[in-house]
Design a protein that fits this description.
This protein is 43% helix and 10% strand. It is of the alpha/beta class and 512 residues long. The chain has a 6-stranded parallel sheet with strand order 2-3-4-5-6-7, sandwiched between helices. A 6-stranded mixed sheet has the order 9-14-13-12-10-11, covered by helices on one side. The chain has a two-stranded parallel ribbon with strand order 1-8. It is globular and about 75 Å long. The chain starts with a helix and ends with a helix.
Length: 512
């Protein structure tokens, strides 16, 4: 009887350890601005990471209280966020970011400025209790038609992207926040958004080595604590499986060839590139087997049932032999190692964000983010700019936002211009008849036409043609990737749609 009891106890202990490891490798999200009971219970059972999104954040004080609630349950919890700055912001999802994004920083091409911006952002995150940032994007935006990367990239030049990726990693981690460089092995040369389908990159191996992989080498040399995989098919590296599920790419290339030893995180497993082809349970098992250490899920699926399903899928895969128990244990160990690093960094005092105790937004006029946005601005005009002689009409020619950016975050110049020029009015327009509707709404007022990636939207280019023909004094503000030829009086390129980019453009328009 004693032997049987001992054997049963050992079996139960093994079962508990296996379930704990399976929970440890998950990075789930949740809804609400306080932690739900199910999430706190899972933290007690072994969950080691939580992902935050815009839906979870209303203020710095609320965010700090939320992360404190999580740490009361588990003091070494990894609190992750998708805070790139620029167009992709969760901290300031309702107002727009205080920091320009990668494309604006690449346009300035001052690596020290990039490091300072990343450090300031890191201090703000740390002050709110966030210690893992799913950033920066190290993708080389070599395809100007890319629908999901665009201004999230530092640019189309490999050397520029590599040096700024390294600077960003260094700056962010100087604040005690782990960087998660993405999207390995590079999402820049795609014409498909992996939120919707599985993209494919058909570049040959020498091109991939010289272009896509160079920024990741730079990030690894800079000590990035995490790397995020991309849901993309790259036949030159693996003709059968997307990177997130590919042992050739995650283990053979990233671990063995590039010598990376940190945490490998998947992109969101509920994205259609994986969910619609493999399903999230099988996809998660294949990802861990391939060499991933953490499963990101929670942008779209954010409930206890998702956590249970993925935990059980991983446990079942170990029991059936599909997933080696040692591989799952190794993945869990890497998660715990990163948690120890962030705890040590926090203990060293990384924290006060931009000189404030609560991580609140610093005064914009003195902020590094606005300084960077002003430096990134490019103004082109065929004639001297004629200043406004009254309140203008701001016409936002609005494309459909991609899922990474979301449609909750305001963008444009109207709000900032209204502060400088009271009486400014605005409207949003789309479609083939946009120009006619803009002209009718504007009346005799000076038009400021604000666009985002004009080169990717034929209707937008047509609307600008008509507006400039009817009103040659129209000011054009391009807040996406400035690929289309400059036109307008003047044409202002901001290299991103962050709030500070809008302010920098508004200052030029208002003559401030």
């Amino acid at each position: 009887m004693t032997t049987l009891a001992s054997g049963t106890a050992a079996s139960n202990a093994d079962k508990d350890d296996l379930a704990r490891d399976a929970l440890t490798v998950l990075q789930p999200g949740f809804t609400g601005t306080t932690a739900p009971d199910w999430l706190l219970r899972r933290l007690g059972e072994g969950l080691n990471s939580v992902g935050l999104f815009g839906r979870n954040i209303v203020s710095p004080g609320q965010l700090a209280a939320l992360t404190a609630q999580l740490r009361a349950e588990r003091d070494d919890v990894l609190v992750a966020i998708d805070e790139e700055g620029g167009d992709v912001t969760r901290l300031e999802v309702r107002t727009g970011s205080s920091y320009p994004g990668n494309h604006a920083l690449g346009a300035v091409d001052d690596v020290e400025l990039t490091r300072e911006v990343a450090s300031a952002l890191g201090r703000r995150l740390a002050a709110c209790g966030v210690n893992l940032n799913w950033a920066p994007s190290a993708d080389v935006n070599s395809n100007p038609g890319n629908p999901v990367i665009g201004v999230r990239s530092f640019g189309a030049d490999t050397g520029l992207v590599a040096r700024h990726t390294a600077a960003y990693v260094t700056g962010l981690q100087s604040a005690g926040v782990a960087a998660c460089t993405k999207h390995f092995p590079g999402h820049g040369d795609t014409a498909v958004d992996s939120h919707h389908a599985l993209p494919r990159i058909d570049a040959d191996l020498p091109v991939l080595q010289a272009r896509e992989l160079a920024p990741f080498r730079a990030a690894i040399a800079a000590g990035t604590r995490a790397v995020m995989s991309a849901h993309i098919l790259v036949p030159a590296l693996d003709p059968d499986r997307p990177a997130t599920l590919s042992r050739r790419i995650l283990t053979g290339l990233l671990r063995e060839e590039l010598g990376y030893e940190g945490l490998i995180v998947t992109d969101g497993m509920e994205m259609q590139a994986i969910a619609a082809t493999y399903g999230i349970e099988r996809g998660s098992v294949l990802a861990i087997a391939a060499g991933a250490d953490a499963i990101c899920v929670g942008g779209g699926l954010a409930d206890d049932e998702t956590v249970r399903r993925l935990r059980d899928a991983l446990v079942s895969a170990v029991r059936t032999g599909e997933l080696a128990e040692e591989r799952l244990a190794d993945a869990a160990a890497r998660v715990r190692a990163l948690a120890r690093w962030t705890s040590a960094a926090s203990a060293r005092g990384a924290g006060a964000a931009n000189g404030t105790e609560d991580g609140s937004r610093e005064d914009d006029a003195a902020g590094i983010g606005l300084t960077a946005a002003r430096r990134a601005l490019r103004v082109t005009s065929s004639a001297p700019y004629v200043p406004l002689d009254g309140a203008p009409y701001v016409a936002a020619l609005t494309p459909v936002a991609n899922i990474a950016v979301g449609d909750e975050t305001p963008w444009g110049v109207a709000a900032e211009l209204a502060r400088l020029v009271p009486g400014t009015e605005t409207g949003g327009f789309t479609g083939d008849d946009a120009a006619a509707r803009v002209l009718a709404a504007a009346g005799s007022r000076r038009i400021v036409a604000v666009v985002r990636d004009e080169h990717r939207h034929a209707w937008m280019a047509t609307a600008l043609d008509a507006l400039l023909a009817a009103r040659p004094d129209t000011v054009v503000v391009e807040m996406g990737v400035p690929q289309a030829p400059p036109r307008g009086a003047p044409h202002i390129a901001t290299y991103g749609a962050a709030r500070v980019c809008g302010r920098a453009a508004a200052e030029v328009i208002a003559g401030a």
